[in-house]
Design goal:
The protein has 16 helices and 11 strands. The relative contact order is 0.15. The longest helix has 16 residues. Helix 2 runs parallel beside helix 3. The strands form 2 sheets. Strands 1-9-8-6-5-4-3-2 form an 8-stranded parallel β-sheet. With 319 residues, the protein is of the alpha/beta class.
């Protein structure tokens, strides 16, 4: 399946794994790359030791790394440290990429910016993004309110008018070949996939939490700020997080301020994450859980998704 993305990045398949904080480690990123996609390590909240371990786990694989932009601003030295690994790409999301763009460009590393609005897409263009990811609200983890089906072609039209050389990826709700094929038809050059790789053998997700996610339907996911309150993370508006609902979210969904006042919840929540207690720590996954029924290796996910999309689109697909 040849697209501008596969040509520019030397890939076999137009598939990137999302840099999911604390879930997308080096083994997952390396497996996606080995299968012909491009794997991204989740630099997330800026744990330097965790990031170094992830790069070691990736071995010699050609992988990229992603950061939560507003959190990177608190530890900008981490960018310099990651760039010493010569990543295949540097991914920024949830904040203004401009303060980091010059250093990334000087290192000769492609900048990928994830956006949730047209305004953010223009901000990414101004920062020199080589790739823009249009993320719909269906996605797991953090995001905003626009839907994938309309945001992707609207950003595609913007790029066609103003920056036709910039590549576009679709994200949010894409878990199989149907989603990949649809994204290409909407004008994307490829896809960024999170939840489907979250439910893979290599993802750093406790087995009981992964199992709870795989067992859920898309109807059972919600967007809220409850996990961020429990983790004492001060996420800026308009971003909140999509998870599978559980006892914790049902208990606090109408009383977030009551949750904020409970000093006993953060340590209990942290322990639940470590122990895989899905009744307290909800699976951080998107609406695509309803399309997921197994947890194979990441390489199988890549090849299966690509084969399904190619069958749907017909042979010799080029964009």
């Amino acid at each position: 399946m040849e697209t501008r993305l596969t040509r520019d990045f030397g890939l076999d398949h137009p598939i990137l794994s999302a840099p999911m904080a604390l879930a997308a480690g080096g083994a997952l990123a390396a497996a996606v790359t080995a299968a012909g996609g491009l794997g991204l390590i989740g630099g997330g909240y800026g744990d330097a030791d965790w990031i170094e371990t992830a790069f070691r786990d990736a071995g010699n694989a050609r992988v990229g790394c992603g950061f939560i932009t507003w959190k990177l601003a608190e530890k900008p030295e981490l960018l310099t440290r990651v760039l010493t690994h010569d990543p295949a790409a540097l991914f920024l999301s949830f904040g203004d990429p401009a303060p980091f763009a010059a250093e990334i460009a000087e290192a000769g590393v492609p900048l990928i910016c994830q956006v949730q609005t047209l305004g953010q897409a223009r901000q990414a263009l101004a920062a020199g993004a080589r790739v823009i990811v249009a993320q719909g609200s269906e996605a797991g983890g953090h995001g905003a309110s626009r839907a994938t089906m309309t945001l992707v072609p609207e950003v595609a039209d913007l790029l066609a008018r103003e920056a036709p050389e910039v590549l576009l990826l679709a994200a949010g709700g894409i878990a199989d070949g149907r989603g990949l094929a649809a994204a290409l038809m909407l004008g994307a050059d490829g896809v960024l996939v999170g939840t489907r790789f979250w439910a893979s053998r290599e993802a750093l997700v406790p087995d009981p939490i992964r199992a709870a996610g795989v067992a859920a339907t898309g109807d059972q996911t919600i967007r809220s700020s409850l996990p961020d309150i429990a983790r004492q993370l001060d996420w800026p508006t308009p971003f909140n997080i999509r998870t599978v609902e559980n006892d914790f979210t049902r208990r606090w969904q109408d009383d977030p301020e009551g949750l904020r006042a409970r000093e006993d919840i953060p340590p209990a929540y942290a322990q639940a994450l470590q122990e895989g207690d899905a009744t307290l720590a909800p699976p951080i996954a998107g609406e695509a859980v309803g399309l997921i029924h197994d947890a194979p290796g990441a390489a199988e996910i890549v090849t299966r998704m690509a084969a399904e999309a190619e069958a749907l689109l017909g042979g010799g697909w080029r964009r």
